[in-house]
Design brief:
228 residues; single chain; 9 strands; binds pyridoxal-5'-phosphate; alpha/beta
């Protein structure tokens, strides 16, 4: 039988080493946070990763986030919401109180979320998702509008604590194209540092080292950790 624990250990060690190498090539004083994306795995897998030291996990669907959080409620895990949020699921999302929502992708969603949060007198932390390569298949606000939208949400949605930006790199085999999309997101982040932006969430299994080199402070890695 394949020993999953050994595979996870090897995977996690490799990812952490790669993160560390990329980090040192950019800035010795930065801290890069790893969010392990558990959407393709099971609660048992998550528990194994926890035993190896991983604490932050990300899910794409509110339903699955709820199930995992309930099943693993005895562990001190930190949950991140990464996927597109439908307005009719906002109440459920608020109930789950994720430590960070990466996928705030429109003013409309922000207003609806803020309204429900205000009613319950709760605040939640979120990142503005940017569609950095203007791809139709992706959620997120247009690059050219991102700064204004960030400021608008910050000014009008007091129950949302905006902490920065999130982006999925351009879907391309061309390194330069992906790099450009990360740089564009980083530039927005950089311009918002005086407005509460401390987190730049970019980079997945295929491109997290590049993302770190472009200024990412939080990477979301799934398959490179959970797949054998
Ligand atoms: C699935 C997903 C990830 C992780 O993807 P991998 O390629 O498996 O590392 C990261 N961010 C978001 C928003 C995702 O949907």
């Amino acid at each position: 039988m394949i020993n999953k624990k050994e595979i996870f250990e090897k995977n996690l060690d490799r990812v952490l080493r790669n993160i560390e190498q990329a980090r040192l090539s950019v800035d010795e004083h930065s801290i890069i946070k790893l969010v392990a994306v558990s959407k393709y795995s099971s609660s048992e897998d998550i528990e194994m990763l926890y035993r190896l030291g991983q604490r932050a996990f990300g899910e794409n669907h509110i339903q699955q986030l709820g199930e995992r959080k309930e099943e693993l409620k005895n562990l001190p895990l930190e949950w991140h919401m990464l996927g597109h949020i439908q307005t009719n699921k906002i109440n459920k999302l608020i109930e789950l109180k994720p430590s960070l929502i990466h996928s705030l992708d429109s003013v409309k969603l922000a207003v609806a979320l803020n309204e429900k949060l205000a009613l319950k007198n709760i605040k939640l932390s979120a990142l503005l998702e940017i569609n950095s390569a203007s791809e139709e298949s992706k959620s997120g606000v247009e690059l050219s509008m991102a700064k204004d939208i960030y400021q608008e949400i910050r000014a009008t949605c007091p129950n949302i604590i905006l902490k920065g930006v999130m982006s999925i790199g351009a879907m391309s085999e061309d390194y330069e194209v992906v790099k450009k999309s990360f740089e564009a997101t980083y530039n927005i982040f950089d311009a918002l540092k005086n407005e509460g932006a401390t987190i730049c969430s970019m980079g997945m299994s295929g491109d997290y080292e590049l993302a770190i080199k472009c200024g990412s402070s939080m990477v979301r890695v799934g398959s490179s950790i959970f797949k054998g």
